[in-house]
Amino acid sequence: FMSKRREQNILKIIGDVKCKSILDVGCAEGDFGYLLQKNGARVEGVDISKTAVKKANKKLTSAVVVDLNLQKLAFSTNSYDIVIFSEVIEHLQKPQNVLKEIHRVLNKTGFLIITTPNFMYWGNRIKFLKGEFKYEKIGMFDETHIHFYTYKTLLDDLRNSGFKIAQKNHIYLSNKFQFITKKFPAIFAYQFLLKCIKK
């Protein structure tokens, strides 16, 4: 399930997808990929859930079951124009290994779209000061999250995996005071959204 705001922010940063080959890593049931296909892209997906992949196969060019903690991406080197990696990295035991795999399957002029929750979002900082922290079924503190990313740790993982940042379109919960909030995404972004190219 992708929030409307995240979907809009990704669409804004991704640009024209006509005739592009796209890999959606963590494609779920294929709804977002299907939207990209309607815009002229060819979308393949991978996901850990067998039931989700079954549904995704009806909407996308193809979809396969992959457990990224155990398996590599079974796709050839330099084979995609775009890789979408939205709200997945926080679930992985060795995120850099998967980022390097994404780097490998992207072609030279290709780019990665990545999103992940900001662990040090200001609302969370207040909770921590009050001594509040508990896992939840969904959301920022989803019990399946293994990694909690700050802006710095996310940028470090991307750079160490061979990427550089081309564009930012982070998700903010409020449109107020944008002239300040956009200067300090490490504090005010609710989710980070980056477009990355190969170094």
Biggest pleated-sheet summary: 7 strands, mixed
- Helical content (DSSP H or I, runs of 4+): 25-40%
State mean pLDDT (0 to 100 scale): 94
Poorly predicted runs: none
Count up the helices: 8
The counted number of beta strands is 7
Which strands sit side by side, in order, in the main sheet?
3-2-1-4-5-7-6
Description of the molecule:
- The protein contains 8 helices and 7 strands, in the order H-E-H-E-H-E-E-H-E-H-H-E-H-H-E.
- Helix content is 33%, strand content 24%.
- The protein has a 7-stranded mixed sheet, sandwiched between helices.
- It is globular, with a radius of gyration of 16 Å.
- It has helices at residues 4-14, 31-38, 50-59, 95-105, 122-129, 151-160, 178-181, 185-188; strands spanning 21-25, 42-47, 62-65, 80-86, 106-117, 163-168, 191-198.
- The protein has 199 residues and is of the alpha/beta class.
Summarize the model shown.
With 199 residues, this protein is of the alpha/beta class.
Task: Chart the SSEs and their pairings.
Blueprint: H1 4-14, E1 21-25, H2 31-38, E2 42-47, H3 50-59, E3 62-65, E4 80-86, H4 95-105, E5 106-117, H5 122-129, H6 151-160, E6 163-168, H7 178-181, H8 185-188, E7 191-198
Parallel strand pairs: 1-2, 1-4, 2-3, 4-5
Antiparallel strand pairs: 5-7, 6-7
